[in-house]
Design goal:
This protein is an alpha/beta fold. Helices cover 33% and strands 23% of the residues. The chain folds into 2 domains: 9-137, Rossmann fold (3-Layer(aba) Sandwich); 139-300 and 327-344, Dihydrodipicolinate Reductase, domain 2.
């Protein structure tokens, strides 16, 4: 297949250094193509998926790329500058480490990995490599949440005392019939709740000190899914604020992020029925509608910034340290649910 990547000297003279990217995993990973190529100095040249039919189908929609079913072909390709790791969750850690060790910048779909030990190994590989990496915690980029963060920072909410978020998955068949149920281990916290953990930290600017969590698998009873399909955690923030995060994969609801922010001066409520803010305790106050776009983002929208960061022109919107911090909280939530006790957050450093 003809390689149509713009790697010749005339293209580089026109736009500056040119980066080539490869993608492993073409579920959500297919959405990365548009994200990379929104940047004039990046081209996706290699696509990989273990499923030959899915690979061929994606190749037809995005012609001019090299296609392979072998992740090693992507990891070992000396022409690539960036690799997206977007395959099954249990392959993320090994592929992220291999890519970093081969001198590649890495963008990984959530979750980063499935254990603290894997996270420690990734951090060591990242430090040795000197390369950039980030994860697709895309809710930070939603216009609604960016505007909400600005209102919180301006003081409109007064002192925050309670925040909560529910990751309502609403697609139970993906865990009972899809690849998630076939993995040796799957976590609804790592696969979904991590978005809410990161979002609440992003919105409030506060760090989480400890967690206490519980989980169950009532919704997927008598299915092949073997893990908790629901988890709820109380979060103790460093300044005394309390939070709640739920990872609700079996709910009878459309996919939605339910967010509530309570301050001494204002309240934000985002539910499936609508999103409103209140700045009065009067009985007849119906608040005012929040109009910023939600989600208002595409799965690959963080990649323009990632390319800019690789080119040393911009800080990452989600830094390496922030990715590790979100995962540290998620590890603590899983440990708390498993052990039945409160768990202090231990940073991955």
């Amino acid at each position: 297949m003809k390689d149509t990547s713009l790697s010749n000297s005339s293209a580089e003279e026109a736009v500056g250094p040119f980066l080539k990217a490869g993608i492993i995993g073409l579920g959500v990973g297919e959405r990365h193509i548009a994200g990379y190529e929104a940047h004039p100095q990046c081209r996706v040249t290699v696509l990989c998926d273990l499923n030959e039919e899915a690979l061929r189908s994606c190749g037809k929609r995005h012609p001019g790329r090299r296609l392979t079913t072998r992740p090693e072909d992507v990891l070992d390709d000396p022409s690539l500058d960036i690799i997206s790791v977007a395959g099954y969750d249990d392959s993320h850690a090994a592929q992220v480490i291999a890519a970093l060790e081969r001198g590649k910048h890495v963008f990984v779909e959530k979750p980063l990995c499935l254990s603290r030990e894997e996270a420690d190994s990734i951090r060591k590989a990242w430090k040795r490599s000197g390369k950039r990496f980030s994860s697709n915690l895309i809710l930070r980029l939603s216009p609604r949440f960016q505007a909400l963060r600005e209102r919180i920072a301006s003081g409109l909410f007064g002192n925050l005392y309670y925040v909560e978020g529910d990751y309502n998955y609403g697609r139970i068949w993906k865990i009972t019939e899809g690849w998630r149920g076939r993995l040796p281990f799957y976590s609804v916290v790592y696969g979904g709740g991590v978005h809410i953990v990161d979002l609440l930290v992003f919105l409030t600017g506060r760090k989480i000190r400890s967690v206490v969590a519980r989980g169950n698998k009532i919704c997927t009873a008598n299915t092949r899914f073997r893990y908790n399909d629901f988890n709820v955690a109380l979060l103790d923030f460093e300044d005394g604020m309390i939070g709640k995060v739920s990872s609700n994969f079996g709910c009878v609801l459309p996919h939605f992020h339910q967010i509530q922010i309570y301050g001494t001066k204002r309240t934000f409520l985002q539910t499936a029925a609508g999103t409103r803010e209140y700045d009065s305790r009067e009985p007849n106050d119906s608040g005012h509608e929040v109009s910023e776009a939600y989600p208002g983002i595409e799965k690959g929208d963080l990649l323009y910034n990632f390319v800019e960061a690789v080119l040393n022109r911009a800080p990452l919107l989600i830094s390496e340290e922030e990715v590790f911090d979100a995962m540290a909280v998620c590890f603590a939530i899983e440990e708390s649910a498993r052990e039945g006790k409160a768990v202090e957050i231990s940073a991955i450093r």
